[in-house]
Amino acid sequence: MIISSQFDSGNIKCTSQSDASNIQLHIKADNQSEFYQWFHFKASNVKDIDCRYVINNAGGAAYTGGWLNYQAVASYDREYWFRVNTRYENSELVIEHNSVCDQVYFAYFAPYSMERHADLIAFAQTSESCEVQTLGTSLDGQAIDCLRFGEPADHKKTIWMIARQHPGETMAEWWMEGLINRLVDDTDPIVRSILQKSVIYLVPNMNPDGSRRGHLRTNAAGVNLNREWHQPSMQNSPEVFLVLQKMKETGLDFALDVHGDEALPYNFLAGTEGIPSWSKIRQKKLDLYKNTLANINPDFQTQNGYPANSPGNANMSYCSNSLAERFNSTVMTLEMPFKDAADTPDKMQGWSPERCIKLSSSCLDALHVCWDGIMN
Length: 376
What we know:
CATH superfamily of the largest domain: Zn peptidases
Order of helices and strands: EEEEEEEEEEHEEEHHEHHEEHHEHH
CATH architecture of the largest domain: 3-Layer(aba) Sandwich
CATH topology of the largest domain: Aminopeptidase
Number of domains: 2
Number of helices: 9
Largest sheet: 7 strands, mixed
Distance between the termini: 61 Å
Structural class: alpha+beta
Strand content: 15-25%
C-alpha cells in the first residue's frame, strides 16, 4: 500500500500505513498560514482491501463544523467523483472504503487541477466570441487568466465574475467551466441576448498558486485574497491587485464572486447589505436576482445563508463589499456546499461538479430574466 499526494493540488502526509485498518494521515497547513482542511491524495495497491483512513488532525482544521454530516469524495478515473463512508469522531476524520480498483483518489471536494484550468483557457480562446488576456503573474509565476466575452461598446453594461479566491473551493471553478461552455455557444439565444447588451469578464481561478500547492484558503504567501480588496499589493496579493486594476479600466455594473462553504449544506447568495451606500433600491435588486434564480433552479434556495450585516458594518476588505461600494453596482457572493444540497440531496455524489455546471447555466438564465430590474 502506498499513499501519495505529490501531484497538482495534492495535500496529505501519511504517518503510518502498516495496517490497512488504521492508515494515519495528516493534512498540511497552507504555506505561512494556519489554515488547513483541503486534502487530496491517492491510495495505491488497495484493490479489494477494507481500508480505514484516519485524518488525525481534523480537529484543528479551519472549520470543524464542516466535518458534521460530511462525506469525502473518491474517484477511480479522476472524472466521476462519488461519496464514501466518512465520519468525524474524537477530533479525527475517518474514511472507510474498499476499492474495486488498484488505485483510488480521495479529496475534500472534486479537485480542479491547474492542467484542467489550462485546458479550459485554451478551449475558450478558440471561440470567436472570447478573448484571453494574461493580466500578470502570481508569486509563483503562474498566469492570472482573464477571459472577455463580447465586444466593448459605450451602450453596453460590464459584467465581472470571478472564482476560487480560496483555492480549496474547487466547486467555484467547476461552476466557471459550465459558464464558459455555455458562453462559447454562439447558437444559444440567451447568450446572444446578454452579449448584445453587455461585455462579460471572467477570472476562472483567482488563486493559481494556492490551487497547485493544495491550499485551502490562501495564496503562496499565506494571504487570504478575500481580505485584500481594500488595499492589495503586488508583494502580498498580486492576484487581487491585477484583477482590480483591470476592473478599474473596464468599469463594473454587475458581479458575482463564486465560493464554497464548508459548513452550510445549501446554495445561496450573500449580498452587500452592510456597505455605507446600501439602499432600498439595492435590496430590491438583490432580492429580485435571488428569487429569480430560486425559481429557475431547485438546487438554489433563499431561506438559509449568512446573516446580513447591518448598514455601515460591512468588512470593506471583502471582494463583494469593496466592489459594490467602489463601483456603485450590484455585487453578490455565490456560495455552494462542500457537502450536499440539503433540500435536493444526491446520495451518490452529494453536491458535485455536474451540479455546479448546471447552476452556472441557471445563473446566466436568471440574469437574462431579470435584466431590466437589475441593470437599469
